[in-house]
Write a structure and sequence with these properties.
By secondary structure, this protein is an alpha/beta fold. Helix 4 (128-142) packs antiparallel against helix 5 and helix 19 packs across helix 20.
């Protein structure tokens, strides 16, 4: 278990590194539309000696603000002063003292780790002796020393982020700007990145170093010395994390549920079991089925409830300001127990302005059959001498949400790609919807919906044009195309943006469009690869509301994710480590395996890290 991280505290008195006054920035809009106002009347400062968190929903203006501070954009109006330099007139003088790591850091993937660092040292005209000292130290500090000869393109996601961070730190900047550096990396790598930055900040205290960390992970924002909350281009809050918690006192509860026991896993030698498909949920106004996901939707519809989130076999309930506490029975549970608020509760309280999303209204066709939807037996994938997936076996029941977790480079993405039919196994078998992927890959893929980690639709086409294109790819006839597209636009609330170019959509709407496209042909199995990477908590909740409804309608879901809170929405989880299946079970079962006297109530992230770091013995899934 990683020791608690100590965040450097602000030193006093201080001179701000950045002062922003009346900042406005607008982007020109295409086709004669009015300019898009990305930032509106922002005034704030960035202090040395602390990590300042920059949080906010998609399209809030976080990246635009960082690019303006870095001197990569010129503001429409207002003033930005960085390290005493006016960025409208004297940005060149400030640039050597600024380190900037964008969301997709510009590594040269056909160059080695050492060559990338040498290139950045050359850009800063660094003397040979200083270069050797700083490069050597950063390699040791980031754990990249054994990999200096490896091509950057062959690194895992977490290692790429560490290399990007090392490049940004090479010049020992006074101001380090990090734009969501931990998106797409596993919880262990996220903690390592935080430790690297925290330690470098502590060492740079005498030089007055400061860090701005934009993040979609609110547990990271909670560790910061101060948090800036952006929403729709406006600064909603500029305060220490504790000030977000104070208004939430007495408004957060755990709702205990009465749900059936989770199926226990058979011994490793047992073959994957079969299970009948779940019955569809009632649609006649009856009480929702007693699953945590269904109860969460029911509870969220209560006027007193601001947020209802699945946590294991219960719910975390956040009430609206001033609302009376409802009874547990009215929320669909057995008992309400007070909980201490988290930073995320305060974040949602400040930006949530809409009602809970409604489930999609598209019709889904359940295919008959009693066997499991996915069966994997002794699956192996080699790349030369490297074994990426090593005799993995598990099955997924029809209508089940199964999460595949693991550190970056552990083999989960390779497993996922083989099950989607995108990569051929070296050996073993994989059956999807009762079809052997090796013998009938095209037929099997026709039963699958796939949503990629990165937006994979056509950015230059409109929303409607994307849906029309994919409807044709899926082989729908003209009448079926029209029906499917109309249902997708209506069911996923895309009617108002049907003519909008997809590349201009906010990330949350892009995600919604990608999911709608994946369901056009009404598949009975849905593959989701890091579907909410980089998406804010409100958009993630909306996404999982829809996924839960699909599962209860009989759609089987296999998902990979690095967000441990959303892994709670899965019925079962499989943790892949070093190419093998290290653990399988319900979220509650995996947390129980990490429970110790020192950690009596572990989170799912605690369990993930404990199981991976302990090198849990190989198991076969149920």
């Amino acid at each position: 278990m990683t020791a608690p991280l100590v965040v450097p505290k602000m030193v006093s008195p201080v001179v701000p590194l950045v002062v922003i006054e009346g900042l406005r920035h607008a982007f020109a809009a295409p086709r004669g539309a009015p300019p898009h106002l990305a930032l509106d009347e922002i005034s704030m400062s960035i202090q040395p000696g602390i990590i300042t968190g920059l949080a906010g929903p998609d399209a809030a203006g976080k990246t635009t603000l960082l690019r303006l501070v870095a001197g990569l954009l010129r503001a429409t109006a207002g003033r930005i002063t960085v390290l005493g330099h006016d960025m409208a007139r004297d940005a060149t003088a400030a640039h050597p003292m600024i380190g900037y790591m964008p969301q997709r850091f510009g590594l040269y993937e056909d160059m080695t780790v050492a060559e990338n660092l040498d290139l950045f040292a050359d850009l800063h005209t660094m003397p040979a002796d200083l270069r050797a000292e700083r490069v050597g130290r950063l390699l040791r500090f980031t754990g990249l020393e054994p990999f200096t000869a490896r091509l950057a393109g062959q690194l895992s996601g977490g290692m790429k982020q560490k290399l990007g961070l090392a490049c940004a730190l090479l010049s020992r900047p006074r101001l380090l700007l990090l734009d969501e550096p931990s998106v797409g990396v596993d919880p262990i790598s996220r903690r390592e990145l935080w430790e690297i930055v925290s330690t470098m900040l502590e060492e740079g205290r005498d030089e007055g170093m400061g860090v701005v960390w934009a993040t979609a992970y609110l547990d990271e924002a909670a560790r910061c010395g101060r948090v800036l909350l952006l929403h729709e281009g406006k600064l909603l809050a500029d305060a220490p994390p504790d000030e977000f918690l104070a208004p939430m006192a007495g408004r957060v509860f755990r709702l205990d549920l009465s749900v059936g026991p989770s199926p226990s896993a058979p011994p490793p030698s047992a073959p994957p079991p079969s299970a009948p498909p779940r019955s569809a949920p009632p649609h006649n106004g009856a009480q929702p089925a007693a699953t945590p996901r269904a109860v969460a939707r029911h509870a969220a519809a209560n006027p007193s409830v601001l947020d209802a989130q699945v946590v294991g076999d219960g719910l975390r309930i956040v009430l609206r300001a001033g609302a009376a506490t409802p009874s547990a029975d009215s929320l669909g549970g057995q008992a309400l127990t007070p909980l201490p608020p988290r930073f995320e509760d305060g974040f949602i309280d400040r930006i949530a302005t809409t009602a809970p999303p409604q489930p999609p209204t598209i019709a889904l066709v359940r295919r008959d059959g009693d066997g499991p939807a996915i069966v994997v037996r002794d699956l192996v994938r080699r790349f030369g001498d490297f074994v990426a997936v090593d005799h993995v076996s598990f099955s997924v029941r029809r209508g089940e949400i199964f999460g595949l977790l693991g550190p970056n480079g552990a083999g989960k993405s390779t497993t996922f790609r083989m099950l989607c039919g995108l990569l051929k196994p070296s050996s073993g078998t994989a059956e999807v919807a009762g079809l052997d992927l090796l013998r009938a890959p095209a037929v099997a893929r026709a039963r699958i919906g796939y949503m990629a980690q990165h937006f994979s639709l056509y950015a230059a086409l409109s929303v409607r044009e994307n849906l029309r294109f994919f409807a044709r790819v899926y082989g729908l006839n003209r009448a079926a195309q029209m029906e499917a597209i109309a249902a997708a636009l209506r069911g996923f609330d895309l009617d108002e943006v049907a003519g909008t170019i997809a590349g201009e959509l906010p990330l949350g709407l892009k995600q919604r469009l990608a999911l709608a496209a994946a369901l056009l042909h009404r598949p009975d199995i849905l593959f989701l690869d890091e579907p909410t990477s980089g998406v804010d908590p409100l958009a993630r909740r909306e996404f999982w509301t829809r996924i839960g409804t699909l599962a209860e309608a009989g759609v089987t879901v296999l998902v990979t994710s690095h967000f441990m809170d959303e892994a709670e929405y899965c019925d079962r989880l499989g943790i892949v480590d070093q190419g093998r299946l290290a653990a399988v079970g319900t979220p509650a079962e995996l947390r129980a395996r990490a429970r110790t006297p020192a950690l009596p109530d572990p989170t799912l992230e605690d369990a993930f890290i404990a199981l991976v770091q302990a090198g849990a013995p190989r198991e076969q899934a149920a």
